[in-house]
Amino acid sequence: SKFVHILGVPFIKATRREFIEKLQQRIAQNDKTFVVTANPEIVMHSLQDPAYKKILDKANYITADGIGIVKAAGLIGDSLPERVSGYDMMLDLLVLANEKHQRIFFLGAAEPVLQETVRLVKERYPNVIVAGQQNGFFDWEDPELPQRIRQSQADLVFVALGFPRQELWIGGNIDKFDKGVFIGIGGSFDVFSG
Ligand code: UDP
């Protein structure tokens, strides 16, 4: 099977390289994509919170964020090739976006962290098109942000709102978009800019 189910959560069996390649194919085809990078905390939370589990069911792909998930796969007699974390994927996706002149929207973190992240991206990956940016402290009810992301025609939307906010935000808004790879990456902007 292409998936390993851990407590009801289907993890994709792919190396990071294979998975990044799959995302590039989906970007090339303008296929809208919702990616969850799930750690043991997320799996446990999905057992307790049916609304959160429903959101995970909307994801196109769930990757193993952390060695705990890879080990759990081994314990149930299956295997995942390696951990595929949000931060590592963000770095891979930036390299490819730079090569291919892709458009990225940066969503999340405190304003200074966001600004420093965007500044470093422009410096290190000069061919990346910054399609837009928004800090992680905004009104979820205001339709302005989804509109802005829609109009930005972003190929990639990095959603750094932390768990479980980023999954709830993507799951609750994905129907408003017609393209873009939306990926929850937790505290990655803090790490990148720190
Ligand atoms: N964050 C955000 N909006 C919020 C709460 C948090 O953008 O309403 C950001 C926070 O600034 C940090 C990231 O989400 O960049 C991860 O936050 P936290 O460490 O609280 O989450 P976790 O590590 O549990 O995913």
Automatic annotation (TrEMBL):
EC number: 2.4.1.187
Catalysed reactions, as listed in the record: UDP-N-acetyl-alpha-D-mannosamine + N-acetyl-alpha-D-glucosaminyl-di-trans,octa-cis-undecaprenyl diphosphate = N-acetyl-beta-D-mannosaminyl-(1->4)-N-acetyl-alpha-D-glucosaminyl di-trans,octa-cis-undecaprenyl diphosphate + UDP + H(+)
Pathway as given in its UniProt record: Cell wall biogenesis; teichoic acid biosynthesis
Superkingdom: Bacteria
Keyword DNA damage: no
A GO biological-process term: teichoic acid biosynthetic process
Alphabetically ordered keywords of this record: Cell wall biogenesis/degradation, Glycosyltransferase, Teichoic acid biosynthesis, Transferase
Family statement drawn from the similarity comment of this UniProt entry: Belongs to the glycosyltransferase 26 family. TagA/TarA subfamily.
Enzyme class of the recorded protein, top EC level: transferase
Stretch of the intact protein here: 3 to 196 of 244
Organism from which the protein derives: Planococcus koreensis
GO MF terms held by the record: N-acetylglucosaminyldiphosphoundecaprenol N-acetyl-beta-D-mannosaminyltransferase activity
Cited function: Catalyzes the conversion of GlcNAc-PP-undecaprenol into ManNAc-GlcNAc-PP-undecaprenol, the first committed lipid intermediate in the de novo synthesis of teichoic acid.
Name of the protein in its database record: N-acetylglucosaminyldiphosphoundecaprenol N-acetyl-beta-D-mannosaminyltransferase
